[in-house]
Task: structure prediction
Amino acid sequence: MARQRTKANSDLPENLYRYGRDNQYFRYRHPQTGKMHGMGSDKIKAIAAAKKLNHILMKPSDLVRAVLDSSHESFANCIRRYQEERQPLESLKPATVKLENYRLNALSKDLGHYLADDLTVKACAEWLDGFKGNAYTKHRGTLIKVCTFAVSKGLMRLNVGLNTMTAPRLTEKKRRRPLSKEWYDLIYQGAPEWLQVAMALALVTLQRRGDLVLARYDDIEGDRLKIIQAKTEQHGHRAFLKIQIGESLAGIIERSQQIKPLNCPFIVHRLPARRIPFDGQEHHGQIQGDYLGKTFQKVRDQIPVFKEMEPEERPTFHEIRALGGALYLRQGFSKEYVNLLMGHTTQKMTDDYTDRHQQWTECAAELVF
Result:
């Protein structure tokens, strides 16, 4: 809510104030930080600057927003049109659409009040600075997609400055620690049985959590388990796997069949304390990928060794995939074997996963020369 203007400042625009002896100086109050900035003693210049700053820094009222949202020049309108016209053409999975819409809603809430052509690199950069790590990368990518779409539709001018936004932030070194076998065992011991099955299945098959929770008993054909990797499906045959069921995998599947509810068609399942339906649910024992990841984190965070780490350092469920790949290599399996199981299109992608688990041999070099 705007402050009530005093009589001394009644002739000034919002956020501009007189101060000093005889009120001969002016200062501007930043509407977001509350910090005061000197504007000198020239009233005309101070008023002009304050009006321009108010236009950039102040979000419009709901009534103004309603008008702007109906305008093709509103950035909020650019976002809405992107969702209606462009997003459906990208063949995104429902879960991906949900995540992108989450980012679009945040973008509209924080930057939607801008006129499209008034959106500055500074405003975008300050908004992105509120995110860290992968969240920064995802929100930046979504912002670029909307701006690119808006330019292609003539909703905003091609702003050369915005192109600098495509340069990724210089990020700090990745802090997430790789999951060691010892740490895996600690988490496994504290996990409920259904999570133990999921962890073992991830370690042996090297599949992502989103694919694991969709694996079904009727996907088993003879001695093969069929899995379609959702993330790499668009890359062709590499994503369509028929995994041979060896002794380890057979044991995991057999154990999962003993977990209630016994009639659940999904290999990774549980008996919920209460039934809470979700989009795409086929059975009340079905598990979502997010729930799997969060339960893993909950169990992990009860273990003393992880309590001593910063939250961003603690390994996630996804790290099981890298650990499994490294264990395969240590047992003498080839890089190509691991590459095929992971479904990667290049060996470099597989190396990026497994190299973090490189073991070093301690030695010395003490020759007197």
Observations:
- The longest helix spans residues 133-152.
